[in-house]
Amino acid sequence: MGTDDPSGYTSDGEAPAHLVELGHFSIAAHAVTNAEFAEFIATTGQVTSAEQFGNSFVFGGQLPHDFPPTRGLAAAPWWRQVDGADWRHPEGPHSDISTRSDHPVVHVSWIDAVAYCNWRGARLPTEAEWERAARGALGEGHYPWGDGREPGGRHLMNVFQGEFPGGDTGADGWIGTCPVRSYPANSFGLFEMTGNVWEWCADWHDPAYYSRSPRSDPTGPEEGEARVMRGGSYLCHESYCWRYRVDARSSNTPDSATGNLGFRIAAAWQ
Predict the structure, then answer these.
(1) Whole-model pTM above 0.90?
(2) Which of 35, 68, 103, 209 has the lowest CB atom count within 10 Å?
């Protein structure tokens, strides 16, 4: 797990690279889709965190030019707090998911993701399980296929292309989320383990955790303020967020929801 590459983000706690041993587990081939999440909502009546708050965070580049002024984050002004943005309305009330049933669901908090997992009789993967799955059979490299981001000029994941945040060229085929299974699977048959949407993991986040992580089946710190996110998203760009790597990590508070954050499910091996 992790990396000792000095180009990484030490504040995220990516280092040191270290060996981990895991028991058998299963993990979904792709992130939970809008169609799958809609079935959960229809069955349970769950009200998501974003719906309870009445708003969520949307990338400003996805809003119409005449969209009313919204509050931005001081550290990341491209994130806009949009009233009415939620999993059904990814860019706000003017948007919907009618043509995005096979796209990963977004605007789901860690709380929402755990509720879905409980309904499915599953769970979120631990951070160690997620990284093992993302690496596939290669074991090493920054990406599921090796170290080159675009080997032979081929785009193998959905990330921000162009000059961030001014304009995504869509050179990889997509602006915003793409349907699951849009890019080749890794050697374990898993799709979009990097790029497209960030994915929640079960663990609390601690930048210093790797230095004391147990070798066998680590499950993260016992407590914390934020939960781990992995994989990067369609908004990651090497100029500010080189986190579309299997060895990169980030975090967010459990009740947070954004337009580039989803999840996939896991379970013990049956």
Answers:
(1) yes
(2) 68
